Every structure is written in C-alpha cells, then in structure tokens.
Write the structure tokens for this entry.
Amino acid sequence: KKILVLNGPNLNLLGTREPAQYGHTTLADVEAMCKETGERLGYEVECFQSNWEGALLDKVHEAGQAFRDGTLLGVVINPGALTHTSIALHDAIKGVGDLPVIEIHISNVHARESFRHHSYVSPAAAGIVVGFGVTGYILAMEGLVRKLQG
Ligand code: DQA
C-alpha cells in the first residue's frame, strides 16, 4: 500500500525560501525523509509537488480512486498558501469521500499573520500537524498510520 505526500505552491523553494520560517531543508530532503519514514512504517511513498491548484486537485481525485481500490492508505498534504484560499481543494477532498487526509504546515501558522489563521483544508482533514518544522511530515505520516490502524 501507498501513502501520497503532496506539496503545494512554493514548496519547491524549500531550503532557500524564508529560512527563518521554513528552515534550510530542501524539498528533495523532505521527500527522501518521507520515503525513509514510509519504509520504516511499511508503506510505499509517492511524492508530488505542484505550483498549480488544478494539478493538486487531479492528484486528490486520483488518490480518492486509489483509496477506494485499496491501494492507498491516505494523503499527507502541505497545501501551502492554497490552505487559505482554495475552496476547490476543500471540495476535492470532501468530494472523494472517505479518503484520509492529514494537513501539515511547517511553520506555526497560528503565530503568524491573521490571513494564515484560517484553513479551508482543515474541515476536510482527518488530522492536522502544525509548527514542528519539516519533522511535521514524519509526524503526519505516523499519525495517519496510527489513526488508521486504530
Ligand atoms: C505553509 C504555511 C502557509 O501559510 C504558507 O503559505 C506556505 C507554507 C507551511 O508549511 O508552514 O506556503 O503551509
């Protein structure tokens, strides 16, 4: 079975983007870390990043089908700024039914600008990890596995 790790807009810039907020770890490092975590937990990991909202929606739709087919455990997603803007992403996650989605943010969005305090994704998420830096991806994957194993 697989876990899908999705990253939204600007997360391809990790490592050099606002290091005070997001640290020095690159997206390639994060994805390698997720693959290692998957191996440890007994799951294959697919990683996908896009700056395009529609590409992420397509991935969520595909994930919904894979979940129904029994080949996907769930999704870990850092939606980037789409968190705060995308009703379409909210609808996509709701629209694919029971697909478990864990939302992760590297920074503590609640300690930042007020426009980052609201998330359209959270009401559709099975769990949320916020403010643990890139370690949050590991915590989100562990949380997903533990939650679904009961
Ligand atoms: C982020 C927080 C968002 O507010 C921001 O737009 C991002 C990254 C985070 O991981 O902390 O792109 O999702």
